[in-house]
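Input record, target 12 of the design panel.
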């Protein structure tokens, strides 16, 4: 048996080494490689909410990822009724600790949720840009959802601090989405939620060209309805 420990709370989870190694290259390397963890059979888990680790442990044995302790679940919801943030947390954990099957399953659920046309949550956007690599297909999927449906749960003047590269990813998809819409409707754009593309592109370009800024600098994105 091996033990993985939630660093912030010290909560311990015990699991079979064979299971951890089968589903995660990270755990396989830690528990069987030339590391201290291979002798102690104990791995510390960082930067993850406790409920995410509990849900992962449940998935590891039963292949059902239940968010029974997630604060994002309302009292009137079943554990299977996930929202975007729950799925994002699961995906970021699976990406960081190399659990490809879990990552694929949760990414599919997220895609289904986003394609229902509700847009992406501002909290999710801020979290995902700090916890996933830009090359992740999930980043592209979220950018596509924002381009099509906008950002939900934001007031008209809400400012969201996004990295320039993420802004460009979204902006390119907004332009493509509008081009597709024009073709479908005979070059006439159907009224709907608009995103300030000019402001997105201008702010992103200025941030990119500013040599005095650090690569990790962030920028403000205004999801207003004005052109």
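The sequence produced for target 12 reads:
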């Amino acid at each position: 048996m091996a033990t993985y420990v939630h660093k912030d709370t010290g909560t311990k989870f015990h699991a079979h080494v064979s299971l951890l190694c089968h589903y995660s290259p990270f755990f396989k390397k830690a528990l069987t490689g030339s590391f201290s963890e291979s002798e102690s059979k104990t791995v510390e888990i960082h930067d993850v909410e406790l409920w995410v680790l509990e849900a992962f442990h449940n998935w590891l044995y039963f292949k059902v990822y239940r968010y029974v302790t997630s604060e994002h679940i309302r009292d009137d919801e079943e554990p299977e009724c996930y929202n975007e943030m729950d799925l994002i947390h699961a995906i970021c954990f699976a990406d960081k600790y190399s659990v490809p099957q879990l990552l694929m399953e949760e990414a599919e659920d997220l895609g289904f949720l986003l394609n229902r046309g509700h847009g992406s949550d501002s909290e999710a956007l801020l979290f995902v840009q700090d916890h996933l690599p830009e090359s992740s297909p999930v980043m592209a999927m979220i950018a596509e959802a924002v381009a099509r449906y906008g950002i939900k749960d934001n007031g008209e003047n809400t400012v969201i601090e996004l990295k320039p590269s993420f802004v460009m990813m979204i902006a390119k998809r907004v332009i493509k989405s509008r081009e597709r819409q024009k073709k479908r409707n005979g070059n006439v754009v159907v009224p709907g939620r608009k995103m300030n593309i000019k402001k997105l592109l201008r702010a992103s370009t200025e941030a990119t060209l500013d040599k005095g800024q650090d690569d990790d600098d962030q920028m403000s994105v205004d999801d207003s309805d004005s052109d």
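Residues 47-222 form one domain.
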